[in-house]
Amino acid sequence: MTPTHEQSAIKATYFSIVGNASLAIVKWLAGFFGNSYALIADAIESTTDIFASLLVLFGLKYAERPADKNHPYGHGKIEPLITFLVVGFLITSATVIAYKSIQNIGVPHELPEAWTLIVLGLIIIWKEISYQIVLKKSKETNSSSLKADAWHHRSDAITSVSAFIGISIALYFGKGYESADDWAALFASAFILYNSYLIFRPALAEIMDEHVYDDLISLIREESLMVDGVIGTEKCFVRKAGMKYHIDLHVTVDATLTVKRGHEIAHNLKDTLKHKLPQLGHILIHIEPDK
């Protein structure tokens, strides 16, 4: 049995939760015993990522609920709302990292241990692989919250890269450059904030039903013209809810046709679009007479 988009997205989220939990433990231990605040800052982000991934999991499971009397279009709008909460976690972790980094910059402390670079190198590779895996799943499933979760992995990889650079500078130049580690953590917090905006903007567009689906509309018009009886297409509105796209489509038919025949064309068109474009959810077809 082929897994649904929802099931695929949920599996990807479990992958994120297990990965983030494991890496958070490794980073906390390496940061503490390796005298690296950049690694501890990295661990803070991974810890918040665990909770963010749990939120994404909740959102995906809730979005799976079928349409009901109170939610005729289903429960998919929970996804962008969850994305907003995930962004909140990102902003919170960036703020905490920035605050602690600024505090540590002016405080004398020991140089990081050289072995922390090996730990960071392995973390960077793993987080980039995780980003690619989860991002691919987000594209396959049209999930905005899963995309936000993927960017958590990329943000984590970037903070690890900055930590790697900061520790390398501190170790290479030695005494007097201990704060390079903290400056690296500060840079990482700025990058996390920037990514927060990149994640927030598409989710806002989704919840506001912004017109950003020109490519999909072109496909809908193309497939519609292949259906017998459809002369042309007029208005086409698309809005996204969860992993599905709901559409309102106006098509023109021969003005002399009976109401029954127009109804049959509308049903054939709806079935065709459902088959050709499985990402579509609710489809409303409005028949217009050809002038």
Domain count: 2
Strands in their spatial order, largest beta sheet: 1-2-3
Question: Which secondary-structure class do the elements indicate?
Answer: mainly alpha
Question: What percentage of amino acids are in beta strands?
Answer: 5-15%
Top CATH class of the largest domain = Mainly Alpha
Number of helices: 8
Shape assignment: elongated
Low-confidence stretches: none
CATH architecture of the largest domain: Up-down Bundle
Mean of residue pLDDT values: 82
Query: What is the fold named in CATH at topology level of the largest domain?
Result: Alpha-lytic protease prodomain-like
Question: Order of helices and strands, N to C?
Answer: HHHHHHHEEHE
Helix content: 55-70%
Spatial gap, N to C terminus:
47 Å
CATH superfamily of the largest domain: Cation efflux protein transmembrane domain
Overall radius of gyration:
25 Å
Main pleated sheet: 3 strands, mixed
By DSSP, the count of extended strands is: 3
